[in-house]
Amino acid sequence: MKLVPIIEGDRIAGGPTNLVCEPRSVLIARTTQSSAAVRPVAGAPSAQDAGSGAETESTHRFAQELGALRQAFQAHGKSNEQLRTSSLLHLHGLAHAFAVSAASVGLADTARLATALEGLLNELYVAPQKLNPSAMRTVAQAIDLLATLPENSAAQNETVPAPRILVVDDEPLSRQILCTALKRAGLTAIALEQPILALEILEESRFDLIFLDVEMPELNGFDRKKLRTTVANAKTPVVFVTMLTDFDTRARSNLSGGTDLIAKPVLLTELAVKALIHLFRSRARTATPIALKSN
Known about the structure:
Layout: E1 4-5, E2 7-8, E3 11-12, E4 19-21, H1 32-38, H2 51-78, H3 81-104, H4 108-126, H5 133-146, H6 153-156, E5 165-168, H7 172-184, E6 189-192, H8 195-204, E7 209-213, H9 219-222, E8 238-243, H10 247-252, E9 260-264, H11 268-284
Parallel strand pairs: 1-4, 5-6, 5-7, 7-8, 8-9
Antiparallel strand pairs: 2-3, 4-6
Helix pairs in contact: 2-3, 2-5, 3-4, 4-5, 4-11, 5-11, 7-11
């Protein structure tokens, strides 16, 4: 089986149904004003290089900014419809500030995730009709993960192999959307149409993340639980892509081998954030969480 590029610039290239999405950008799209501000500054001192005093100050600042972000998110959940738009704008500003702080001290992973979150919040603010349980679930996950990413800039900038991501969806347009979203996050994905073929590949090759549409004709034959019986991918995060009308039901039910879920119609920025969340989680398991105390 030969895998060929599906994305050329921002359009679809012709070719077979088994495809590879090739990214060009390394960060999610964001507002013009945010773009220059959140880009890591060359030669910026790390928290380790700045000395213990700077480390304490940096940790204290991150704790305050993260605490403010969490409080604002909780307040958003309690806000009425009239205040929801202004609440999203406030959340967007806090995410931007956190991204700038992380970039200024060379915390690449933290800045990347915060910038992606900023982009998602910006889209929800501009188009509040896109606000749904799936998007808010992803926002909450991103905020929680920001507290557990390593504080050491050397750990966050460590060179690691490019993650292997698999997309399985029988609809060409859906595969295009998923691949475009991953491209915005600087990620490459192998996209397959047939679940049976995907299972055969998963039995032989390890992936770091899988996006799986749950509304495919061959899904019963594919059997989602078989993902966990493959040695290579027994612990690989699996994100189910499901219809928004069925999202709450699936969220409350057993995921049948899945790790997480995201709703259709998929928001490009949400899926990019979701991908970064699951890719960074494994690297954050051994990290020291950011202290949330302000004193």
